[in-house]
Amino acid sequence: MVERIRQDEAIHVAYLQTVVSELRSFTFKTEYGRQVPGKMFIDPIWNGMCTGIRDDARARRERGRAVISERIKGGPDGARRLAAFVSLEERGRGVRPSPP
């Protein structure tokens, strides 16, 4: 069911991307006759949305990391397991572990 919803939404997202790209390439005329490139009003809105999405994802990741860390610490041998968890995360980001 989730996959069907994703497929349905993909069509709408692709359409929206096309419309936004088209609007960005247009030149609009104001009520006073001034010509304004579409990118002048599309880009700030788009950049704000992208920043918001990125910041929301970062906040969700941090909250999730805090919950996971607390659960690991609360279990048996929590400090060692948390250190191992952090090490795996750092390795996934390409951070080299510090020498013992």
Description:
With 100 residues, the chain is mostly helical. It has a domain at 27-92. 75% of the residues lie in helices and 6% in strands. It is built from three helices and two strands, in the order αββαα. The chain has helices at 2-25, 39-74, 78-92; strands at residues 27-29, 35-37. Strands 1-2 form a two-stranded antiparallel sheet. β1 (27-29) and β2 (35-37) form a beta hairpin. α1 (2-25) packs antiparallel against α2 (39-74) and α2 packs antiparallel against α3. It is elongated, with a radius of gyration of 23 Å. The termini are far apart. The model has no long low-confidence stretch (mean pLDDT 87).
Low-confidence stretches: none
Helix and strand string, N-terminal first?
A: HEEHH
Average residue pLDDT = 87
Major β-sheet annotation: 2 strands, antiparallel
Number of helices: 3
Radius of gyration: 23 Å
Strand order of the largest sheet: 1-2
Number of E-state strands: 2
Which class of secondary structure composition applies to the elements? mainly alpha
State the end-to-end distance. Answer: 48 Å
Shape: elongated
The helix content is over 70%
- Portion in strands: 5-15%
Features:
mainly alpha, two-stranded antiparallel ribbon, 6% strand
